[in-house]
Amino acid sequence: MPRIPAVTAAEAGPFGRLAYRIARRRYGSVPEPFAVGRHHRRLFWASVVSELGWERAATLLPAGVREIAVYRTATVVGCSWCVDFGTMLQRLSGLDVDRLAHIDEYATSPLFSRAERLAIGYADAMTAQPMTVTDDQVAELERELGRAGLVELTQMIAVENMRARANHALGITDQGFDAACAVPPGHRSVDGAGPP
User: Fold this and answer.
1) pLDDT digit string, tens, across residues 169-190
2) Closest to 67 (Cα-Cα) out of 159, 133, 169
3) 3-state SS of 144-196?
């Protein structure tokens, strides 16, 4: 249960109820961060517009590269809601979600391509406290993905850090979007406290 309650449909106002209906139709349920965010109506709409914008703009990279980096970021931060929702989105996109159980072995696992391994390592470096991104790492990613691809990857990892940290802070946990949603066992969040 989140640290502050979700705004119910009855309390959401007419435009909020419409947004909830659209979300329910799209995802099967109203995402809890969405309903908690409704407490601040201006930020709620800013978030809706931002999410739609990132979804439409971040299409240069192969979905597998982008989504595995976002997933890794969620696991490192310890956001079980993000892992749950992200796993569902990967499954619905036709990506191999079974390999997510092996993400901690990414550096040597044949389940991950070279580009995916580089993206996961970059997600780790960007999410670490303090960040551990190096010039060599960025140069290697630029060679692999191109400049625009590197910018997209960086932005999406940064966006997931924002989402995951906000959800973690507000106590928003997995909602049951996907059966494979558990944060990998033994995985520690960046603050060392483990999943929420």
Assistant:
1) 999 999 998 754 444 444 444 4
2) 159
3) HHHHHHHHHHHHHHHHHHHHHHHHHHCCCCCCCCCCCCCCCCCCCCCCCCCCC
How far the first Cα of the chain sits from its last, in Å, is 11
Token readout for 125 is 């470096």
35 and 105 inside one domain? no
**Tens of pLDDT, residues 42-99:** 999 999 999 999 999 999 999 999 999 999 999 999 999 999 999 999 998 899 999 9
Q: Which tokens belong to 193? A: 């406290």
Identify the residue whose tokens are 């990857």: 153
Range of the domain at 6: 1-57
- Choose the final residue of a domain: 57, 78, 99: 57
Q: How far apart are CA 178 and CA 34, in angstroms?
A: 18
Residue 157 within a domain: yes
Those residues with Cβ within 8 angstroms of residue 10's Cβ, 6 or more apart along the chain or in another chain: none
Tokens describing residue 123: 């997600």
CA-based Rg of the chain, rounded to a whole angstrom? 17
- My answer on whether 110 and 123 are in the same domain is yes
Give Cα separations from 64 to 14, 50, 89, 101, 102 (angstroms): 37, 21, 11, 15, 15
